[in-house]
Amino acid sequence: MTVGVTVVVGNPKPMSRTREIAERVVDKVLQPGTYTCTVIDLADYADEIFRWPSQRLDALNNAVADSDLVVVASPTYKAAYTGLLKAFLDRYSSNALAGVVVIPVHTGADLSHSMAPTVTLAPLLMELGAVVPGRGLYIPISEWARGGQVLDEMVAECIDSITRLARLSPACRLAAESPDEVVEA
After folding, report:
1. What is the Cα–Cα distance from 29 to 17, expressed in whole angstroms?
2. Residue 105 falls within a domain, yes or no?
3. What is the CATH number of the domain that holds 77?
4. How far is residue 78's CA from residue 60's CA, in Å, rounded to a whole number?
5. Span 35-63, average pLDDT
6. How many domains does the chain have?
7. Interval 91-103 mean pLDDT
8. Are the beta carbons of 82 and 72 closer than 8 angstroms?
9. Rounded mean pLDDT, 149-171
10. Which residues of 64-73 are buried (b: 16+ CB within 10 A; e: fewer)?
11. What is residue 80's DSSP assignment?
12. At what angle do helices 149-168 and 17-29 cross, to 10 degrees?
């Protein structure tokens, strides 16, 4: 089985370091050859992000909702995600990302906003129904320039969270089952 992955980049600057880091997260989380990856660089769609309706943006929203894994990345602006990313996510109805595993990622100048992906972006994604496995990833650009060891550590923690969730799968009841029914795994 091939995992369908989408990277959504909320940096107003196209082809940004935020995009590079988000793509690297995918490469570090998943084994080579096990996934296909589509990158949505929202800077390329900024001129129509507020157009309603927009078939192009509807198609992008559907691609994200149909993914197995999504990495949503934004530079940190005023201790939160960008307005560009918020405008894209506002196009979803409540619970439209139900069951989609999403890793929130922020980049920033230093560690002073390191909680931003966890306390700002993750709650928004969960409001849309996404499954967020653990804390958001925060990568200081200064650390990235020195080789990305912080990214390795954060991704290892993320992989651990995903693995722990996966171990529960055989023991979980199916959503349609009655709590009184016993399922043999």
Report:
1. 18
2. yes
3. 3.40.50.360
4. 26
5. 95
6. 1
7. 95
8. no
9. 77
10. bbebbbbbbb
11. B
12. 50
Find the mean pLDDT for residues 46-59: 94
pLDDT of 13 > 70? The answer is: yes
Q: Can you name the residues that pair with 7 across neighbouring β-strands? A: 39, 71
Which residue segment(s) compose the domain that 61 sits in? 3-171
Most confident of 4-13, 103-112, 168-177: 4-13
Looking at the domain assignment, is residue 176 inside a domain?
no
- Which H/E stretch holds residue 26? helix 17-29
Query: In the block, which residue shows the tokens 């990313």?
Result: 85
> d(Cα 2, Cα 69) in Å, to the nearest integer?
11
Contact between residue 185 and residue 171 where contact means Cβ atoms under 8 Å apart: yes
Residue 46 lies in a domain: yes
Tens of pLDDT, residues 142-153? 777 666 677 777
Within-domain flag for 102: yes
Both tokens of 160, joined, read 């651990």
Show the tokens assigned to 43.
Answer: 């800077």
